[in-house]
Amino acid sequence: MYISEVMDGAPAETRGDLETRTYRKLEELHIPFQRVDNDSVEAMEDCVAISEKLGAEIRKTIVVCNRKKTSVFLVILPADKPFQTKIFSEKVGCSRMSFASAETMRDLLGTEPGSASVMDLLNDPDEDVQVVIDTAVAKEEWFACNPGVNTSHIRFKTDDLLHTFLPKISHRPVLADL
User: Fold this and answer.
1) pTM for the full predicted model
2) Gap between the terminal Cα atoms of the chain
3) Who's near 163: CB < 8 A, 6+ residues apart?
4) Sheet-wide strand order for 174-176
5) Which of 89, 98, 110, 121 is buried most, with the most CB atoms less than 10 Å from its CB?
């Protein structure tokens, strides 16, 4: 798999809409970041080499909702941690949770299954999606994810995610031991 060298900041050329908006928002908020470009990845197993190159683990990001789709959550976990619906439901006080359909993911976040990222929240100005971050992720120095496309990955300080990025886009994360 192709993985570029680690680069600072945004690429010189304009990329897709969400990727470009991600870089602009990080720069606007004065959040330094590094990135790599890579072949398209669709599974967490494909992200191991990218994590090693960046020096930060790519986080598992899933989207779940209740049966009526009135509660939708973007959940961020360590890459190797399994998602347990029962534990998650207990922590957030919402029953009958399941993985969001491709249609729900497209409608609310503009993303596809296998490509979810915290950066998709830039497509959620109405705050329809609640962010839940595993406490193990919140304790790490670095946070790594895709910038809205699975052919690039970025890393920046987790503190910047929790205390600058998410609050500035009006998403207050819930931290939970999942």
Assistant:
1) 0.93
2) 31
3) none
4) 97-99, 60-66, 72-77, 129-134, 174-176
5) 121
- Secondary structure class of 157 (helix, strand, coil): strand
**136 phi/psi in degrees, rounded to 5:** -65, -35
By residue count, the chain amounts to 178
State how beta strands 97-99 and 72-77 pair.
unpaired
Cα gap 39→58, rounded to integer Å = 15
**pLDDT digit string (tens) for 66-106?**
988 889 999 999 999 999 988 899 888 888 889 999 999 99
Please, which pLDDT band fits residue 113 given cuts at 50, 70 and 90? confident
Structure tokens at 178: 């999942």
